[in-house]
Specification:
By secondary structure, this protein is mostly helical. It has one domain (35-482). The protein has 22 helices and 6 strands. The chain has helices spanning 3-13, 15-20, 36-50, 52-62, 70-73, 79-83, 90-122, 134-142, 153-173, 176-182, 185-203, 245-262, 268-280, 294-303, 326-354, 366-383, 394-399, 405-418, 422-426, 430-445, 456-471, 475-499; strands at residues 128-130, 213-216, 220-223, 388-390, 518-520, 523-525. The strands form 3 sheets. The chain has a two-stranded antiparallel ribbon with strand order 1-4. It is globular, with a radius of gyration of 24 Å.
């Protein structure tokens, strides 16, 4: 018998195999086709597919400025510098270097913790990490570019912490899935598409992306891509557009990632990011990430360490529960809503893809999976990160045969291993991560095909949701615009129909059916614990969670 077969057989018959229900373990509900080596291989596949989040999340969150305060660090800074985000103030830039290193450590730590919890407690092959879209909303809308928003970084972290607590309570009570259903279907799918457009918009800018587009005083945005020496103090190109070597390198990386994805190469996004970064590391080129400046010298010295564990210095415990502003409550509700749609939809879609969805539309371990995710959100806030969520890249491991929590545990261990290479992740430039943002955005935008375009009462609110997110630079404003327009348009129609007793009513043949409750055998029921207090006594439906929600690309 080959060595690997003996290893798998012994693992299956051990306490480990019985706990995770490997094939041949004899445990109740064992999962066919699973083995120790297959689960480890699946974990490696998922990690490679989602490891890009380490560099991308640290770059995005650093754009918020973190706890760095320009006015206290550099009291000599003038009003123009402060309004521009202090991007040319040396003391502030040095603080940002520390924040980026903190965020690399925090991203790795919370990804490892969240993934380990869902593996051990829920026995599911899912990877968790700070969510794309949620981190952009946190950095660019709530806190604002280098702290120019309405809510300080510390207060925003407090909102994330509270969101995790509320999330945990909703998960325990079984209300989470119901809240995901009460939003009209077209608005839900448009939210993913709108966030995708927003991410693509960020990936094309110069701050966290390739620099393909830039600011313009007349048209707000225009074609960019000029070399740094042709930018003014407001980061606007003064001619020589599309001549930046860094921008063209980013476009090359974008093309490479697209081709690799088309050929189904595992870890395509990570490969593209690393290749562009490696080309950008030599100091004597036009695309270098280490120019001969004070900031460049400091980054180069850290990069040369290669192996280093950076302790979190500034972002851990940086919470401020000053919740008197109305803006913070809007942010908290938006975090909660987007996280409900994102994580719930992804978990259900992964369960369906992995084949462990039951006939009621639920899956074993769902409650513990939701609780693990919610708990990790609050722990992540204590470390300084935006909300974490389940990654759809978990499908890479499921494709490789991952079916149990051993896949998640192996992903977690690989995240821990990556913690020792902070200098590498800290040296990945924006024109390397920008293509990843555009690619992820394009994947998320494909959910627009599920919008009900055949009925204007559904189509117009969905379109406003998608359009307002990038145009207002705010995910929250897009959600508010879409939901309010849906209520106004369909509310007026309903009032007119009620007043005229149905004699005046538009053609609603193609309108979506809105349904707030779950159904089972033709009966409306409440989810989870709520169902136990409903007037329906059909005990077979108490824990029904409904059909899987739309996937998050």
């Amino acid at each position: 018998m080959p060595i690997l077969e003996r290893l798998n057989q012994r693992a299956a018959q051990s306490w480990l195999g019985r706990y995770f229900k490997l094939e041949g373990s004899g445990a109740v509900g064992e999962r066919p086709g699973t083995s120790l080596t297959m689960e480890l291989r699946a974990g490696l596949a998922t990690f490679v597919a989602m490891a890009y989040i380490i560099s991308v999340n640290s770059t995005v969150v650093t754009e918020s400025g973190g706890p760095c305060d320009c006015e206290s660090l550099a009291p000599y800074a003038n009003a123009t510098q402060i309004q521009a985000g202090c991007v040319d103030v040396p003391e502030y830039l040095a603080c940002l270097d520390v924040v980026k290193k903190d965020m690399i450590t925090a991203t790795v730590a919370i990804s490892a913790i969240g993934t380990f919890l869902v593996g051990v407690l829920a026995n599911l092959p899912l990877g968790l990490a700070p969510g794309m879209g949620l981190n952009a909303y946190f950095a660019y809308t709530v806190v604002g570019f280098h702290g120019t928003g309405n809510i300080p970084y510390r207060v925003a972290l407090a909102a994330v912490f509270l969101e995790g607590i509320i999330f945990l309570i909703l998960s325990i009570l079984g209300i989470r899935q119901w809240l995901a259903r009460i939003i009209p279907q077209s608005i839900k799918v448009a939210t993913g598409a709108g966030i995708g457009l927003f991410l693509a918009f960020l990936g094309m800018q110069s701050s966290a992306g390739m620099g393909l587009i830039g600011a313009d005083p007349a048209t707000l945005v225009t074609l960019g891509g000029c070399p740094p020496e042709y930018m003014d103090e407001n980061q606007m190109c003064q001619g020589h557009t599309m001549e930046s070597a860094r921008m063209w390198l980013g476009i090359g990386g974008f093309t490479l990632i697209c081709l690799l994805l088309l050929y189904r190469v595992k870890g395509s996004i990570l490969i593209g990011i690393l290749l562009v970064s490696i080309i950008s590391w030599p100091r004597s080129t036009a695309v270098t990430n280490f120019p001969y400046t004070e900031a460049g010298d400091r980054a180069w010295d850290y990069f040369k360490n290669v192996v280093d564990v950076h302790p979190i210095q500034m972002t851990a415990g940086a919470l401020d529960f000053d919740l008197g502003s109305g803006e913070i409550w809007v942010a908290l509700i938006t975090f909660l809503y987007v996280d409900i749609l994102d994580t719930t939809g992804t978990m259900f879609s992964m369960a369906k893809f992995g084949g462990y969805m039951d006939e009621r539309g639920d899956f074993a371990g769902s409650t513990m999976a939701f609780c693990s995710d919610a708990f990790a959100v609050s722990i992540g806030a204590l470390l300084g990160t935006p909300p974490i969520t389940t990654f759809v890249e978990s499908g890479a491991g499921i494709t490789e045969g991952g079916r149990t929590g051993l896949t998640a545990i192996s992903i977690s261990l690989l995240f821990v291993l990556s913690l020792f290479f902070s200098p590498i992740f800290a040296s990945i430039p924006g024109w390397a991560t920008g293509p990843a943002l555009v690619i992820v955005g394009s994947m998320m935008a494909r959910s627009a095909r599920d919008v009900n375009w055949d009925y204007l009462g559904d189509a117009v609110p969905a379109f406003l949701t998608m359009a307002l997110m990038p145009l207002t630079y705010s995910i929250a404003y897009g959600l508010i615009g879409g939901i309010c327009s849906y209520i106004v348009i369909n509310g007026i129609i309903g009032i007119i129909a009620w007043v005229t007793r149905g004699r005046i009513r538009p053609d609603q043949e193609n309108k979506e059916t809105w349904q707030a409750f779950f159904t089972h055998d033709g009966k409306e029921i409440l989810p989870g614990w709520m169902g136990r207090f409903s007037r329906k006594k059909d005990t077979s439906s108490h824990d029904h969670k409904g059909p899987p929600l739309p996937t998050r690309p």
